[in-house]
């Protein structure tokens, strides 16, 4: 919704409802019909790539003052996804790609939420300026 600046409530529902239905159906299928790890990885990677592409396009066209945080999260998450996809066995019996993936999500999550918080403050201050 944010990347396309969808503000109309009906449009939000028309976009969100099919996505929520798809994710819910996917989770129910995995939990109650067949737990298929390969299918789950494909769906998660596809959703991750789609989200990264949408945010990258938005970051490329916006003049947002905090877009450097967004670019860092997009590039960092894309690289982190490679650790999840191209798994390698534990190095020295301790450190593998999955462990590194989890380690990279810590700073990326912090940076993402700081962007979300500061973006909300930025949008609120801009809205307040327009009201005055």
Automatic annotation (TrEMBL):
Its main location: membrane. The chain crosses the membrane at residues 12-33, 39-61, 98-116. It comes from the Eukaryota. One of its GO terms (cellular component) is Golgi membrane. Pfam families: Per1. It is found in: Endomembrane system; Golgi apparatus membrane. GO terms for molecular function: hydrolase activity, acting on ester bonds. Involved in the lipid remodeling steps of GPI-anchor maturation. Belongs to the PGAP3 family. This is Post-GPI attachment to proteins factor 3. It comes from Thalictrum thalictroides. The lineage of its organism: Eukaryota, Viridiplantae, Streptophyta, Embryophyta, Tracheophyta.
């Amino acid at each position: 919704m944010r990347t396309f600046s969808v503000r109309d409530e009906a449009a939000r529902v028309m976009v969100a409802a099919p996505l929520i239905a798809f994710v819910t159906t996917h989770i129910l299928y995995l939990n109650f019909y067949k737990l298929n790890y390969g299918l789950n990885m494909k769906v998660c990677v596809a959703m991750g790539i789609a989200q990264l592409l949408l945010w990258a396009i938005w970051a490329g066209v916006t003049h947002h003052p905090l877009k450097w945080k967004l670019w860092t999260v997009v590039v960092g998450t894309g690289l982190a996804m490679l650790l999840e996809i191209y798994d390698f066995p534990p190095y020295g019996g301790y450190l593998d790609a999955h462990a590194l993936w989890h380690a990279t999500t810590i700073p990326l999550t912090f940076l993402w939420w700081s962007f979300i918080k500061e973006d909300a403050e930025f949008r609120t201050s801009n809205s307040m300026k327009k009201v005055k």
